[in-house]
Amino acid sequence: MIIVIKSQIPLSEIERICEELRNQNITTEKLEGKHKVLIGLVGDTTNLNPEQIQQLSPFIEQVLRVTKPFKRVSLEFRHGEPSEVVVQTPSGAVTFGQNHPVVVVAGPCSVENEEMIVETALQVKAAGAKFLRGGAYKPRTSPYAFQGHGESALELLAKAREVTGLGIITEVMDTADLDKVASVADIVQIGARNMQNFPLLRKVGATGKPVLLKRGLSATIEEWLMAAEYILAAGNPNVILCERGIRSFDQKYTRNVLDISAIPVLRSLTHLPIMIDPSHATGKSEFVPTIAMASIAAGADSLMIEVHPNPAKALSDGPQSLTPQEFEQLMLEIAPLAKFFGRWTRLPIATGMATHWLYEFVDYS
Ligand code: PEP
Ligand code: MN
Q1: What pLDDT digit, counting tens, does each position of 123-139 carry?
Q2: Which ligand is the nearest neighbour of the Cα of 134?
Q3: Is any atom of ligand 1 closer than 6 Å to the C-beta of 311?
């Protein structure tokens, strides 16, 4: 349930309303949006009477029930206002959200060695990425496949962060590694396979660190949002949702099937920012640019793109990785499209890294 408060309310009156509700064993949460102040009521609110709550104060504008099973992540809980996830990076704050430029995250599937991660980081930064991705702990189907370099890879990510000023996104698979991962990561990733690892969700919820929550391989939208609810319920509102393709009956030509409709569907259900990962969705580098463009057109707030200096030699996910040159090419193509939708600030300057480009560079800013 949410209480919509009139804007002239004195702070002491908000405190008084919350106190009265707490005395009735109801947990309250003050939510300050850009335009409205709301009080969220969580827990079992089935026996609460909205009309009685309305009587608590003349400053109460409306009392509304949140009808969805997910509460804090629902759009209703913020009265329709999108949330922003602001991430501090060495180069400054980067905001993920509907009214902000598209944030591009790029980097290899796995951190392989210092030279490759630092070089890739420098190249994706030059092309306009704001975050470097790279796995230290890898969820692999086969126990015999490369599992990631673990802690030493985290040190290499820290080095790449220091050299480039890029923010770092890396995956945590085990609650035991969370402190180590969170000490390097600016955003902690929960991968598709762990979307419903509830102890892990609770633990990242307790840290307050921004979290990237990928959609499970066969998760429904509702299961995914309920997983996000675990993180918010544990006290962490900084969640970004990432659609990365789901299982379908025809996986012959693509690794997964990107659920592009997840973008408008999520928009209608939740206030959380949305990222799209065309690399894991398609599994093939040749299809990544098309899906990246489609995602921007459909309103994604962010993209995650796998980039490797030599995809043929990658220790994981080579076939879906772009070269740095292909990544630059992609950035030159998506920037004008995102700008068209008011989601890009400054068009990138071609460094000559890309072998050809569609546009003569023009700085429209
Ligand atoms: C990844 O981002 O490297 C990854 C393993 O992705 P997903 O969890 O979406 O498969
Ligand atoms: Mn990967």
Answers
A1: 999 999 999 999 999 99
A2: 1
A3: no
